[in-house]
Amino acid sequence: MATIYFIDVTNRDGVQTARLGLSKLEKTMINMYLNEMGVFQSEFGFPTTRHEQYYLQANLELADMGVLQPIRLGGWIRGVVDDVEKAFKLVPKMKHLNLSISTSDQMIQGKFQGAKSREDVASMMVDAVEAARAHGAQSIGVNAEDASRTDIDFLVRFASAAKQHGADRFRYCDTLGYDNPFTIYESVKTLAENVAIPIELHCHGDLGMAAANSLAGAKGAADGGQDAYINTTVNGMGERAGNADLVATVLAIAKSKGFAGKYPLAKPIDLKKAWKISRFASYAFEVPIPINQPGVGANAFAHSSGIHADGVLKDPHNYELYSFDEVGRGEPELVETGRAICSGEYTGISGFRHIMGRMAVTFEDTAQAEEVLELARYANVEAQKPLIEDELLFIAKYPKIARKLLTLIPPE
Description:
Largest sheet: 8 strands, parallel, barrel
CATH architecture of the largest domain: Alpha-Beta Barrel
Low-confidence stretches: none
Strand content: 5-15%
CATH superfamily of the largest domain: Aldolase class I
Mean pLDDT: 94
Oligomer: single chain
């Protein structure tokens, strides 16, 4: 039976949200939380981008240490040989890659200005796949950017060439959110049946259908006999109107009519972690969670209407498809209203010891405390906001990794 996997792309597509971004420590925390949830893979960054180099290496070290396990960490690059070579030069231990190239006539003409043909694009992709395999990549996904506006016959030929030359998955990118659930189902089912390769669904929300299209595309892949890999971002972050929201899409697979059971997940997702990761992403991106966000919005379990309030008090299933505790909600939140000592880029050793002591963290000596404090200061400089408890605990536990995350060396 075909199964569904999740590949979260918050640390690649989510951070491309205009006017927003994440520090390297915040990106690492996202990977930690995704791992706790049971997400199959994190597209954790750009291995051809110099300022990502040490962050990517540090996260791969965490994987080798067993900290970021069993989640896979995959990089995103353009589907050209030069990018493959640069990626393995900057991040030699990269194991999983997605290679992206535009396939629609609109993109080929509009971006390459007539300098490339469909055949050129396919050839570039094949060369990149072979180069990645030669460097020892363990898994390779080939991305068709703007697949939803690509001629389906060419898309089949393109995906077939990718498979023949060693690609493990084919990513169908609805780059502009152009598809609807009916069209993406037919296109993906056609690809699954004619190419016989696992299919990734990468959907954007320009028309408000990212989660719905992701489900329909996954159904098309499964009905065509292939595993589906759904791309998501936490809180639906991403370029323009964003990507398919992780929590909403998992909920839809688990709870929507006729889907649960028939189209199973390859590995369970712990939705009890939903509240935690959504709140962290909201804080890190500095974007409030919409009040009506599925599962994690302030009104997701709020009832005002008399009929609804009466019905939900008699039996929650009358007006709730799932319970608040299924998504990790229900615990009281404590808010300090008196004296507050916060970590910051100018925090002193006394205040820092007080903060860490409240988290039951002690230091062997003053030198160790000052080392962790200095790292926390640098992390605050990069994030420009107070660090949360989990970030401080991470720095205290993995100071060498934290140092690498905070290292940026501009080219000479």
